[in-house]
């Protein structure tokens, strides 16, 4: 039995310490994930807290079955979508919002290649961006990515394969244009 399954069992038995430990295991990852989907640190923190509140409520009311990691990412994804809809309905001035997530990996924008890749990814449809973010940005397995997005495993596999092939081709084309026609 995995550590998280033991913690969930302890939570179901009323152990509040196990709840804190489970939250600690995932808090930083979920905050980073929410940072990519929200327009500022405050919104990311709100989304993260709301994600864990929803997870705790669910754990309190039902006998949890399944894998916790894709479960918590699915809640985070839906929470970010809900918060974005709410902000849109509140008629927030989009020009005042931060354009890029506040969080970035160490050295993320150090190389020119990273900037090009980021531009290519930003031109993809939202579902494709989400698949790439979950798989490579959050290090979820393909199965966990499929569970999080509510898609069949084979669909995620084929979309991921297609996306990687497309990005590689576009990246090589962009690289050739930027360096005067020379390709590696």
- What's the story with the biggest beta sheet? none
> What is the averaged pLDDT score?
80
Q: Note the gap between the termini.
A: 47 Å
Cα-based radius of gyration, to the nearest Å:
19 Å
**Approximate shape:** globular
| Oligomeric nature of the chains | single chain
Task: Kindly estimate the percentage of residues that lie in beta strands according to DSSP.
Answer: under 5%
The class by helix and strand makeup works out as: mainly alpha
N-to-C series of helices and strands: HHHHHHHH
**Beta-strand segment tally:** 0
Question: Which parts are unreliable, with pLDDT below 50 for 5 consecutive residues or more?
Answer: 103-111, 179-184
Q: Number of DSSP helices?
A: 8
Helix content bin: over 70%
Structure summary:
The protein has helices at residues 3-12, 16-37, 41-61, 68-89, 112-122, 126-137, 142-149, 153-178. With 184 residues, the protein is mainly alpha-helical.
Detailed description of the structure:
The protein is an all-alpha fold. It is 72% helix and 0% strand. It contains eight helices and no strands. It has helices at residues 3-12, 16-37, 41-61, 68-89, 112-122, 126-137, 142-149, 153-178. It is globular. The model is unreliable at 103-111 and 179-184 (pLDDT under 50).
